[in-house]
Amino acid sequence: MKIKAIAIDDEPLALELIKNYSAQFPALQLLQTFDDALSGAEFLRHRQVDLLFIDISMPDITGIDLVRSLPEKPMIIFTTAYKRFAYEGFELDALDYLLKPISQERFARTMQKTLRQYHNKHIADKTPEPASFFVYAEYKQVRIMLNDIEYIESLEDYIRIHLSNTRPVLTLMPLKKVLEKLPQDRFRRIHRSYIVAVRCICTIAHRRVVLSSGAMLPVSDTYADFIREWSGKINIL
Fold this sequence. Notes:
By secondary structure, the chain is an alpha/beta fold. The chain has helices at about 10-20, 35-45, 65-70, 85-90, 105-125, 175-180, 225-230, and strands at about 5-10, 30-35, 50-55, 75-80, 95-100, 130-135, 140-145, 150-155, 160-165, 170, 185-190, 195, 200-205, 210, 215-220, 235. It has two domains: about 5-125, Rossmann fold, CATH 3.40.50.2300; about 130-235, CATH 2.40.50.1020. The strands form four sheets. It has a five-stranded parallel beta sheet. The longest helix is centred in the middle third of the chain and has 23 residues, at about 105-125. Residues about 230-235 have low confidence and may be disordered.
C-alpha cells in the first residue's frame, strides 16, 4: 500500500525538489503539488492523504495555521527556510522538519522515518483490541470487561474500577499501569485520580465530567486538552 501525499509550498523550486526526491521512493505516491496554501487546503477538504509536505511561511495562510485547521491530520512534514519555526512545528506532532534548501540525503532520512511510522500504524490498526483484562481482587483473578468500565478511581496505591453492571472492583495497581491496558480512543485520563470511558460521558459542565450513571468527576488543567478533543462528539456546557 502506497503512502498518498501532497506538497504545499509557494516556492516552485522547493516543490520541484520534493517531486524529484519523492520519485525515488516507490512506496510514496505524490498525488499533487500546490504553490498556494488555499488551493492545497481546498484539496484537503475533499481528499484524504497519508502525508503532507507543507511550507510554514506562506502569504495566504501559514502552514502552522493550515495544519491546525485540519479536522483529520495526516502525517506532517514541515519545510521552511527559518529554524525559528521548529518548535511550533513539533508542537503539532509533526513527523519531521526539513530546512531549505532540502538535501537529498536529508529527505531520504525523513522518508525512512515516515515509512517506519506508516508501517507501524497500519500494523497497530490490524491488531485486535483486547475485550478484557484480569486484575487480582479479593484473593482471586477477576476479569474486567472493557465495555463494563464507567470510570477508574485512584486511591493512592490502589484503584477502584467502577462498572456498569456490578459493584466496583478494588485492586492493588497504580492508575498509570491500568491506563496502559486501555485503548486510548475509548478511555482518557481527566485528572490525576480519574480515568473515564469516553462512551459514558454525557456532558462537561464547570470543569466536571458528568457520566451517564450520574457520577460527576473533576477535570484538572493538566488534562483539559483531552476534553477539547471531544468537543465535537459530546455536549460541552
